[in-house]
């Protein structure tokens, strides 16, 4: 009986062990199938986001930006043409003063020159008397030759005193020239402004003795300042022909380097030569009566010139950030895959670049800030952060 009970216990233990083994095996199989199904399911990777803006063709006017320095139309270092001691100085002869053409700056002691004029007048008078006497003697010689009964001309012109008359006339002419020179030197003792000018420097003092060629002052003309704007060949291609425009009609906006003051000028002319240093040709912008402007435009001011250029039809306006360092523009095709093209820049204006459209594309989703690791064909998820604002601005400027 005891043996039979042991057999029953062993049998029950075996059955429980078999049931446990079967349960464990089925659990392992279920876990394996679950893992297998999980491994077989493909992993979905989200496409990277990229900021784009929708652009389309519009009409825009080019704007060329250049820099230059305002310089007076005429800059003169005035020197003396005669020598002498400074006798008077005008009260207006001070740096910073504006003077009109013909205004007296200084005068030199003219005693010597007054005497030279007097002596020259005496010489002219004597030469006139000598000429009259020679004319009378010539007439007398003609009469004597006629009364002598001789025919034809005398063997020598001295008989009729023709050479003597020529010499007397030459003496009078020389005396007159000497008088003109003396009067001119006398006038040069009064040094005046040759044009409406700004006094930049005064280089003499009361009582100074000036030799011929001594610097008296430096003057800037006040009728006009000119700004030479060097431009590249690419910039010249975006400008209209000045010969096709009326005088002073090509307006230019000028701004100082601090961008705090602004003036309106006009294109006065274009240079027809290349600068030997920059190898560029310059556009000359002018401002009339610069010191009467509000605010005044002083010579020596460094300026930025905004020059209106040609009008372009059917071109794209994109932010400057959309052009990569290699000069490429990236965009998304209809499948939102990346592609690019080389930017054909027509001109730049403020923060925008104006380019010729790529092939015949009418509209495009331009990547606003392309990265260096972009590859053609990459699938992207476009966002239009600030794109609406940029597009509205572009349309407004186009109108």
Care to describe what's here?
The protein is of the alpha+beta class and 399 residues long. It has five helices and 21 strands. It has a six-stranded antiparallel barrel. Strand 16 (328-332) and strand 17 (338-342) form a beta hairpin. Helix 2 packs antiparallel against helix 3 (162-187).
Strand order of the largest sheet: 2-11-14-13-12-15
Provide the residue-averaged pLDDT. 85
- Based on helices, strands and strand pairing, what is the structural class? alpha+beta
Could you tell me the strand content as a percent range? 25-35%
Q: Which descriptor suits the 3D outline? A: elongated
Order of helices and strands: HEEEEEEHHEEEEEHEEEEEEEEEEH
- The percent range for helix content is 25-40%
What does the main sheet amount to?
6 strands, antiparallel, barrel
First-to-last CA distance: 113 Å
Low-confidence stretches: none
Number of strands: 21
Q: What is the number of helical segments per DSSP (H or I, 4+ residues)?
A: 5
* Cα gyration radius (Å): 48 Å
List the SSEs and their pairings.
Blueprint: H1 2-40, E1 49-56, E2 58-72, E3 75-79, E4 84-89, E5 98-99, E6 104-108, H2 111-147, H3 162-187, E7 190-192, E8 197-202, E9 209-210, E10 215-221, E11 224-231, H4 233-236, E12 251-256, E13 262-270, E14 281-288, E15 302-319, E16 328-332, E17 338-342, E18 345-349, E19 352-355, E20 363-367, E21 381-383, H5 387-398
Helix pairs in contact: 2-3
Key terms for this structure?
399 residues, alpha+beta, 6-stranded antiparallel barrel, 5-stranded mixed beta sheet, 30% helix
What would you say about this model in short?
The chain is α+β, with helices and mostly antiparallel strands. It contains five helices and 21 strands.
């Amino acid at each position: 009986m005891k043996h039979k009970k042991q057999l029953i216990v062993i049998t029950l233990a075996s059955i429980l062990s078999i049931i446990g083994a079967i349960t464990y095996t089925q659990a392992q199989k279920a876990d394996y199938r679950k893992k297998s199904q999980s491994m077989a399911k493909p992993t979905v990777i989200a496409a990277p986001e990229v900021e784009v803006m929708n652009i389309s063709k519009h009409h825009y006017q080019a704007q060329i930006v250049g820099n230059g320095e305002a310089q007076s139309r005429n800059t003169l270092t005035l020197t003396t043409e005669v020598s002498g001691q400074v006798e008077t100085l005008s009260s207006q002869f001070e740096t910073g003063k504006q003077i009109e053409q013909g205004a007296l700056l200084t005068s030199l002691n003219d005693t010597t020159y007054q005497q030279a004029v007097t002596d020259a007048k005496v010489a002219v008078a004597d030469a006139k008397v000598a000429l009259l006497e020679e004319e009378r003697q010539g007439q007398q010689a003609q009469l004597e030759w006629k009364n002598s009964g001789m025919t034809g001309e005398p063997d020598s012109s001295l008989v009729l005193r023709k050479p003597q008359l020529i010499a007397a006339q030459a003496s009078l002419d020389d005396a007159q020239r000497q008088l003109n020179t003396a009067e001119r030197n006398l006038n040069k003792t009064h040094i005046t402004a040759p044009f409406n000018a700004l006094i930049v420097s005064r280089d003499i003092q009361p009582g100074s003795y000036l030799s011929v060629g001594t610097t008296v002052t430096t003057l800037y003309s006040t009728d006009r300042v000119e700004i030479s704007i060097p431009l590249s060949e690419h910039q010249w291609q975006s400008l209209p022909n000045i010969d096709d425009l009326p005088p002073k009609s090509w307006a230019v906006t000028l701004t100082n380097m601090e961008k705090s003051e602004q003036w309106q000028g006009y294109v006065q002319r274009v240079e027809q030569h290349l600068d030997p240093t920059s190898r560029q040709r310059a556009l000359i912008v002018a401002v009339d009566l610069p010191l009467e402007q509000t605010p005044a435009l002083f010579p020596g001011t460094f300026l930025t010139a905004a020059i209106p250029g040609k009008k372009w039809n059917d071109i794209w306006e994109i932010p400057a950030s959309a052009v990569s360092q290699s000069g490429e523009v990236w965009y998304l095709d209809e499948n939102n895959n990346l592609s690019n093209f080389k930017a054909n820049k027509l001109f730049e204006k403020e923060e925008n670049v104006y380019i010729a459209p790529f092939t015949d594309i009418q509209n495009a989703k331009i990547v606003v800030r392309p990265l260096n690791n972009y590859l053609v064909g990459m699938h992207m998820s476009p966002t239009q952060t600030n794109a609406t604002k940029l597009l509205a601005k572009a349309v407004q400027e186009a109108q």
